[in-house]
Amino acid sequence: KLDFKLFPEPVERLSFLEKIGIKLPKPLTHKEGEVVKYLLKGLPASKIADYLLISPRTVEHHIERIKDKLDCISKSELIQRLQQLDSSGCLNII
Asked: What is the pTM of this model?
């Protein structure tokens, strides 16, 4: 199970961050979280599809949505961002 969230923040702080232009990541769906778990293990979309019993194209669609949510342009940028979030404790993989 993947729990994607930032540390709890008071509402006032979130409002302030938004006003100064800092965007926090949007929450991931359950299936997107599962894809992230396997991306962090270094698996390609075809293997992720095998594990999740979905098509590789569906995995690529989830990856595109995750990239949009985390403002990443490339898959390698996405993986780096996920590794940073994971190492900073903002991404909890259970």
From this structure: 0.73
pLDDT digits (tens, 9 = 90+) for 19-52: 776 666 678 889 999 999 999 999 999 999 999 9
Q: Which residue has the tokens 């949510």?
A: 69
Q: Where are the alpha helices (DSSP H) in 8-74?
A: 11-19, 30-40, 45-52, 56-69
CB burial of residue 7 (10 Å; 0-12, 13-18, 19+)? exposed
d(CA 90, CA 87): 8
Helical axes 30-40 vs 45-52, angle rounded to 10°: 130
